Amino acid sequence: MTQRTRTLGAVLYPQFELLDLYGPLEMFGCLGEALRIVTIADQAGPVRSTPGPSTHAEFSYADAPACDLLLVPGGIGTFPQLKNTALLDFLRTRAPQCEVAMSVCSGSALYAAAGLLDGKSATTNKQFFSAIAAAGPKTNWVKEARWVEDGAYVTSSGVSAGTDMSLAVIARLWGRAAAEQIAAITEYEWQTDAARDPFARYLDQAKIAPELLGA
Amino acid sequence: MTQRTRTLGAVLYPQFELLDLYGPLEMFGCLGEALRIVTIADQAGPVRSTPGPSTHAEFSYADAPACDLLLVPGGIGTFPQLKNTALLDFLRTRAPQCEVAMSVCSGSALYAAAGLLDGKSATTNKQFFSAIAAAGPKTNWVKEARWVEDGAYVTSSGVSAGTDMSLAVIARLWGRAAAEQIAAITEYEWQTDAARDPFARYLDQAKIAPELLGA
Predict the structure, then answer these.
(1) What are the tens digits of pLDDT across the range B60-95?
(2) Residue range B149-162: mean pLDDT, rounded
(3) Which of A23, A199, B87, B112 is most buried as measured by Cβ atoms within 10 A of its Cβ?
(4) How many domains does one find in chain A?
(5) B184 closest CB neighbour out of A188, A202, A209
(6) Quick check: is A126 in a domain?
(7) 54-113 in A: which are within 8 Å (CB) of B?
(8) 3-class DSSP string for A103-166
(9) Does residue A1 form part of some domain?
(10) Is residue A201 part of a domain?
């Protein structure tokens, strides 16, 4: 089977949440030559996650290649980025050109702040739901969903939900068999039901000590 | 509650598997000030994963700080590392000093090659089981286990299994409540039973096209 190689652009910023980024990149990374993954940030160079480890951004917004897919992770670092006009301008320009524009956890607040989720359905982290949803007053925020697909925009609930969402996007673009094969390779029990959300019961209950979140 | 800050050393090498590293680091990263995470490799600098994204190694083996925990990911890059005497010497020196020495997927082959799993029980990736187990002829390789704890050595099955293992290690060192709270924060459905292994049925069935593994 010959297919064109798509490009996935992963957007990094300081204090991104590790699994928001790497759950999806693990699954997409198993596509091999069918997908090129590139990392993009304010500027090329190391970008520090909340607990410390840094990922190398290969491109700045200015020189990032054309992307077929976008992935925006969340994390405690999302909130200061809501005022980063360079990042919001990048999303506003690039997301409408994508087949699929994804976010994990609070990452959907960045699409919302860019106006891209106006009139659309989306979801986000459950424990911090309302604080994140405030970024998109014209968005239909779904309180119970592992992930939500509204056309090209696919937004997941908190952290681990991004992995389930990614396999659904792989199934959409490369076929269900590819997604199932990747789940088996990675010994991952894929939760295939976007509507099943065992964490909705924690809505707005963010009682976690701030230090547990690395804040 | 005041606790000493422990240090977790994550060992990187070219073509490590992303989720092997970052599933665990997500969970451990939620411990906040209770744990410092450091990244260690042959030399400090960016280390490329199989699908492309690079993680910055902060330390070389020579200057790595004392570690209370070690984490060795697997990946297609494990196999050439079996001959990396600098890495094996590092593990041979450091692992016996740790409270817990962990591996994910084929990472256990590196402990085995260093002689650290002689006479111990361990597990690894199921689809590539025998190829990996060959690195430790004196190890009791467990064919059906999500992870195996043998004293200080805690080895997990493939890729995603490392996340379940990490929560078990968090429960061991910081208490069950901490592990459950972290699973809830990260919207992760923790599989708490080390003996439950739905992927054991794929034992040595690695029929995946090499390009899907990024080889």
Answers:
(1) 999 999 999 999 999 999 999 999 999 999 999 999
(2) 97
(3) A23
(4) 1
(5) A202
(6) yes
(7) 54-56
(8) ECCCHHHHHHHCCCCCCCEECCCCCCHHHHHCCCCCCEECCCCCEEEECCEEEECCCCHHHHHH
(9) no
(10) yes
